[in-house]
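Key result, reporting period 2: structure in, sequence out.
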């Protein structure tokens, strides 16, 4: 057990020996200032967006876990792909964990901080893989009494991304969306949100079982990329919905070209192409993930009226008025048990997060393998 005046922090360090080292380090429980609170972290998910900082693209299959309890550590060799991820962090311990939930155990003298004392809160930070975290009171969103930290642990990254996608579609006057990796946690949330918001959503999945899962949740348009009729099915879905905006989690390989090509084929059903330049229907793909790290290419068959760009939630939120961002955050938290509910494959302690068999599982790019860290579990 830990000293009552200290807590554990998970650190990720890239070393000069070209390895990534994950360790649990003891740190004093912080003391809050006027407008600050200290949260006992009780649930924090391992999202795909956490993995680049946590693991730096290391070869975890060659990793080794040693020690036990608070002395657990994990070491794995870095790869050629790791070079860009470690450029500015060599030898410097990095704290990870973008979102989570827990209980406020101490508060500064400020009114906002005192109002949170003893409350369960959801937070978005960047260093939540720890037992205790000091935060500004303004970073905390109080939870309803009936909501558990586990239910609210993932109420920011994926819910806000789904809300951001719908927000972006409306800003661009689009009434339909194409989404890849649609059976992911985010994809399921986006499907529920689009059903509520009456936005047509074309869901692209990789397996028949994923298509069945989405249809069981009410999805109207589901296309399976493993099907021999994938492109024909996608063209038909785009034709029915006029979905000329896509959000892509894959990023590499042929996916982007396939989507743009199917959009152009659908557009040609109702628009006359301008010779070799294609139709004037603008086709937009926003890339928000890199499940495939290969480069992507776009061939001439998609015409000339298209664009591909990155989609970053913080950049979008920075363009919105603060009142609108606050409104979206409140909705994310208030619907955490309905529209934005999450499912986790396993709940683990900080020490268990450093076990190789768990790392191999939670670092996979597959659907349904998301893990939840509960730092408040006893570390033996």
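The corresponding designed sequence is given below.
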């Amino acid at each position: 057990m830990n000293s009552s005046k200290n807590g554990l922090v998970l650190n990720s360090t890239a070393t000069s020996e070209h390895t990534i080292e994950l360790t649990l380090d003891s740190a004093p429980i912080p003391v809050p200032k006027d407008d600050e609170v200290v949260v006992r972290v009780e649930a924090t998910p391992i999202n795909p967006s956490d993995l680049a900082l946590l693991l730096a693209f290391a070869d975890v299959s060659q990793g080794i876990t040693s020690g036990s309890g608070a002395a657990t550590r994990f070491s794995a060799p870095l790869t050629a792909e790791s070079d860009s991820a470690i450029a500015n962090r060599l030898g410097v311990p990095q704290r990870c964990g973008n979102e989570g939930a827990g209980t406020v155990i101490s508060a500064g003298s400020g009114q906002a901080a005192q109002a949170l004392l003893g409350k369960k809160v959801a937070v978005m930070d960047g260093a939540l893989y720890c037992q205790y975290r000091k935060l500004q009171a303004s970073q905390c969103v109080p939870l309803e009494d009936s909501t558990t930290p586990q239910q609210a642990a993932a109420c920011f990254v994926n819910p806000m991304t789904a809300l951001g996608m719908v927000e972006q579609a409306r800003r661009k006057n689009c009434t339909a969306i194409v989404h890849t990796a649609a059976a992911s946690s985010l994809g399921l949330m986006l499907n529920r949100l689009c059903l509520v918001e009456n936005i047509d959503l074309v869901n692209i999945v990789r397996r028949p079982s994923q298509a069945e899962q989405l249809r069981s949740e009410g999805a109207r348009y589901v296309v399976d990329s493993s099907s021999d009729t994938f492109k024909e099915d996608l063209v038909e879905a785009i034709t029915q919905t006029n979905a000329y905006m896509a959000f892509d989690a894959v990023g590499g390989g042929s996916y982007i070209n396939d989507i743009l090509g199917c959009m152009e084929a659908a557009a040609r059903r109702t628009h006359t192409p301008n010779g070799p330049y294609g139709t004037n229907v603008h086709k937009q793909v926003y890339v928000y993930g890199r499940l495939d790290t290969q480069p992507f290419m776009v061939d001439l068959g998609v015409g000339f009226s298209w664009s591909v760009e990155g989609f970053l939630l913080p950049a979008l939120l920075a363009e919105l008025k603060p009142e609108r961002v606050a409104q979206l955050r409140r909705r994310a938290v208030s619907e955490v048990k309905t529209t934005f509910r999450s499912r986790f494959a396993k709940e683990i302690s900080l020490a268990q997060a450093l076990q190789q068999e768990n790392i191999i599982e939670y670092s996979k790019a597959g659907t349904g393998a998301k893990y939840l860290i509960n730092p408040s579990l006893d570390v033996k």
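The mean pLDDT is 95. The longest helix spans residues 157-171. This case is discussed further under Risks and Mitigation.
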